[in-house]
Amino acid sequence: MKDKSYISKRKFMEELRRYENGSVTRRHFLGVTGLGTATAIMAGALPGLSPSRALASSDIGDRVVLATWPNYHDPENFEIFTDQTGAFTQVNVFGSNEEMLAKLQAGGSGWDVYVPTNYTITTYVEEDLIEPLDLSKLPNYDPDAFDARFADAGIVDGVVYAVPKNWGTTGIASNTSHNGGAAIDSWKSFFDRTMDDFSGRTMVHDYQLTTIGAALNYHGYSFNSVDEAELADAEKLLIEVKPHLFAITSDYQPAMRSGDAWLTICWTGDGKQLNTDIPEIAFALGKEGGELWSDYYAIPKGAPHMEAAYALINFMLDPEVNAREVLAHGYPVADSRTNALLPEEILNDPILYPAAERLDALEFGAAATLTDPNRAELLARFKSA
Amino acid sequence: MTARERNWLLVAPAGAWLLVMLVLPLSVVVIFSFGERAPAGGWVPAFTFEQYANLPARFTAFKNTLTLAPLGTLAALIIAYPLAYQLAVRTDPKWKTILLVLVIVPFWTSILIRSYAWIFILGGQGLPALLDVFGLGDVRLIYTPFAVTVGIVYGYLPLMVFPIYVALDRLDKRLLEASSDLGARPFTTFLRVTLPMSTSGIATGCMLVFILLMGEFLIPALLGGGKVFFVGNALVDLFLQSRNWAFGSAVAVMLILVMLVTVTVYMRLISRLSATREDVSIM
Fold first, then answer.
1. For residue A264, which of A182, A203, B155, B274 is within the disulfide window of CB 3.0 to 4.6 Å?
2. For every residue of A258-304, which 3-state class applies, written as one string?
3. Bridge pairing between strands A263-267 and A162-175
4. Are residues A277 and A303 in the same domain?
């Protein structure tokens, strides 16, 4: 006699493919294939097999929507999170803080968790777009474990709105084989060489903070300046340099890898990823200065899956999970518990963890740059010039 | 119910459609264009012409669009016409359907992915590397206006092929024989019979491609490397980056005005060209 609930081999493989493609959740997969029931029975018999986290028993819904940056997570961690909680992480990738803010201001983003950078958080608080965090739901958050320099921006008027994810720098990636083996390590030579022997080989970000900041550093001004005369100098330089640029883009890895471009403004993790795969590509901080930044996990006001949002942030703050993230994306963390789990060569890596005195020349982005209309207009004029 | 009332009732669905789909969204854009940017971005009500006074700051974007959109349309026409002609006039009917489907097949994939493919084809390790083999070293293709034009032609070709194909397919082949019997050479026949009879297809195709190109932003962003800036890119930046909805709306209103003028002039020109012919209608 045939059992109606029996699943054929073929159907099982189809379901497995669908699950692998991400078109069905693990919960659906386990349900239709009967593996869920089997696991539950076995888990009952063998306690060691059952998921160890307390979260597994609570129902947080079947999904959590995360707005984040490119190349910034270990996909395996999301799978583990789904295994433990049943919630699937839907990842939306963004190109700039301005874009994230624009989406939240327009309303109905549908996000549960997002990853704002230090200098934007006060604006989110003023605009009432960010949820104050209930720390009792984030047992893995230990304020004492974090380097205050990279955790402070998440606290506004004594209220914790965001908890630290990663920090990093904005520097220069150069293909040293076109420079006699030496890295380009100042904004002065970044722009001067672009107008000379690197003409047609340089990229700058499509992002006001770093591109205008680099041009300001060239002149010896603050990375964050909103002074009109200083911005005018920066604009003059950018317009002069524009004909010599290969591209204005924040997606600069492909052109660096193909060898079409030799020089670019670059974030820590991209620099690490490029250097690991192509050792001729070096990452250096600009001598004059540059950006030091810190990204945070936060929950937008009106997040549709609030419980899942807390669960995901708490999961990501688990030192073991966080250490896997670092190994995947190459951005440093400010959490001493996570650093204790990282291999020595990562902690001594000059790209990931530069010497403390090198960081002193760098500046955190200032909130004013996010909302300053002149900086936004300047970048638009530069792009349309 | 009087006849008059009944007429109003019958017009109501169309009227409601126009109101919701056209009048309301356009009014929002116009109202926004007289407002101001909120301090952190967004919009606050005001009545100022400041946004319109600031329009010259986007002059280059309009210039680029108004240069590359007609150029791209023309290039698409030059490439699409022989293809449509071949399909409609020369191809054995049993192959027609399959060849037509092949023209549409690329449309089944996202334009984003198709444009990304061109980044690799036009990038340093693609075509330029091949040209280098033939001694044409150091050619820069990617992130140039040329790359954008290639992307435009590639992306919009089917929209140009189909209207021309339809026009040529309807062409009575006996007219071509008659022309030949009366002593015209093939080229003369093409110029005096085939081409005039396909004017409607050309006009429709050019209109479709041109209008869509005026709002294009993806192809210039991907293949222009952020250096070839269209009005579409200016709008994306204003709404998604600098969050200046008021100025963005003014740019949008300006774009609509420019389009209205261009398209009106174009329609006039076409209808004058075909004024003497009763069998040719536009759109």
1. A203
2. HCCCCEEEEEHHHHHHHHHHCCCEEEECCCCCCEEEEEEEECECCCC
3. antiparallel
4. no
For residue A368, which phi and psi values (nearest 5 degrees)?
Answer: -60, -30
Query: What's this model's pTM, rounded to 2 decimal places?
Result: 0.81
Confidence check: pLDDT of A125 > 80? yes
What domains are there in chain B, each with its CATH number?
A: 34-273 (1.10.3720.10)
Range of the domain at A158: 60-167+294-345
Query: A4 in a domain, yes or no?
Result: no
Q: Judge: B240–A101 Cβ closer than 8 Å, yes or no.
A: no
CB distance A371 to A123 below 8 Å: yes
Residue in chain B closest to A207 (alpha carbons) equals B241
Split at pLDDT 50, 70, 90, the class of B139 is confident
ipTM: 0.81
- DSSP character at residue A49: G
How does pLDDT run across B237-254, given as a tens digit for each residue? 999 888 899 999 999 999
The domain total for chain A is 3
Q: What is the phi-psi region of residue A50: left when phi exceeds 0, alpha when psi lies from -120 to 50, beta otherwise?
A: beta
Residue B137's pLDDT band (cuts 50, 70, 90): confident
A231 lies in a domain? yes
Q: What residues 183-212 of chain A have any CB closer than 8 A to a CB of chain B? A: 200, 206, 208
A69 and A144 part of one domain: yes
**Contacting residues of B for A248, CB less than 8 Å apart:** 225-227
Q: B238 CA to chain A: closest CA distance, Å?
A: 8
Q: Which pair of tokens denotes residue A194?
A: 């672009």
